[in-house]
Amino acid sequence: MEQRDFAVLVIGAGASGLGAAIRLTQAGVGDLAVLEKAGTLGGTWRDNTYPGCACDVPSALYSYSFAPNPGWTRAFAGQDEIRTYLRDTAARFGVTSKIRYGVEVTRAQWNDRAARWELETSRGPYTARILVAGTGPWHEPLVPDLPGLAGFPGEVFHSARWNHGYDLAGQRVAVIGTGASAVQFVPEIVPRVGRLHLFQRTAQWVLPKPDHHVPGVERFLLRRFPALQRALRGAEYGAMEALGFGFRHPWLLRQVQRIGLAHLRLAVRDPELRRALTPDYTLGCKRLLMSNTYYRSLTQSHVDVHPTAVRSVQGTRVLGADGSSAEVDAIIFGTGFHILDMPVSARVFDAEGRSLDDHWKGSPQAYRGTSVAGFPNLYLLLGPSLGTGHSSAFTIVEAQVEHLVAAVTRTLRVEGGSLSVRASAQETFNAEVQAALPGTVYQSGGCSSYYTDVNGRNSFSWPFSTGRLRRQVGEFREADYELGQSHSQQIP
Question: How far is CA 200 from CA 11, 161, 268, in A?
Answer without folding.
Answer: 35, 21, 16
